[in-house]
Amino acid sequence: MEREIDLNLLKMLVLLNKYRNMKLVGRKLGKTESAISKSLSRLREHTNDKLFVRGAAGLEPTEFTSSLIPKITQALDLIDDAFLSTQFDPKEYKKPITIALNGITFESNGTEIYQKVHSSFPNAEIRLQSWSNSTKELIIEGEIDIGIQLFDASLNQSISKYCIEMKLDLWCTNLMENLSGVK
């Protein structure tokens, strides 16, 4: 039978092994000593091991805990690395960004839009083009990353909508979620 385990309990276990003191670990985690004690009890039930015993110098890990700590530390590091590697940094983005603008927006705000996008994505090639009859399909297909249109009620709902400072409707592919961090 699979058993689920709270990753916070594992983090606490690693800290207990490092500091050997529930009060100190509680401070590190923003919890009370009592909360740490209860969490340790849950983990003890889960592992069917004492995990730590009181010693002269504070908490001492059991042999079982000592064997687990390197594996748990490695696993937590891998999880942290997985999330770090998925963080988006617009300054590192190097692919072209194609933006389709309706005529009025292109004429009145094209330069400003280009400059703002380029300042956020300095290593990307920014391409501005006029909105056309095929723009909606090109956004869906991923050929155009961002589309700015005053209003078009006929747009497919698979295109995500975001409002930008100029109070225009911004239509874009999933790329915009990565670019803006908005979901």
From TrEMBL:
HTH lysR-type domain boundaries: 5-62
Keywords: DNA-binding, Transcription, Transcription regulation
Database matches in Pfam families: HTH_1
InterPro entries, sorted: LysR-type_TF, LysR_HTH_N, WH-like_DNA-bd_sf, WH_DNA-bd_sf
Gene Ontology MF term list: DNA binding; DNA-binding transcription factor activity
Family membership: Belongs to the LysR transcriptional regulatory family.
Entry protein name: Transcriptional regulator, LysR family
Organism from which the protein derives: Shewanella halifaxensis (strain HAW-EB4)
